[in-house]
Amino acid sequence: MERGPLRNQAEVARCFGPRLAAMSANRTYTVSGMTCGHCVAAVKGEVGAVDGVSGVEIDLDSGRVDVSGGDDAAIREAIDEAGYDIVAA
Question: Structural domain boundaries of the chain?
Fold first, then answer.
């Protein structure tokens, strides 16, 4: 029997377990202190290296960091490692 693509996070969790579903989640953080392209590159590099992260988009003006996949705690640690603070998630 052939199945189509999984349609939502609940279906992913049911088929593959809650950890994988959490890693496929999209998260948004607001990060303070980024002032230039180098800052963006530092955060993007650290967060992008987190296991399970499949995408990182950053808006410098607002400090918005959108992350696809990865573990929340590991993403937070990566942002801290890059030298920046999360002010909202």
Answer: 25-88
The CATH class of the 25-88 domain is alpha beta
Q: Is the pTM of this model over 0.85?
A: no
Cα(81)–Cα(39) distance, integer angstroms? 12
| Separation of alpha carbons 67 and 47, rounded Å | 8
**Strands, sheet with 53-59, edge to edge from the N-terminal-most edge strand:** 53-59, 64-69, 26-32, 85-88
79 token code pair: 């942002």
Tokens at residue 27, please?
Answer: 């998260």
Dihedral in degrees, nearest 10, Cα atoms 58, 60, 63, 68: 0
pLDDT in tens, the chain (89 residues): 455 555 555 665 566 665 555 556 899 999 999 999 999 999 999 999 999 999 999 999 999 999 999 999 999 999 999 999 999 87
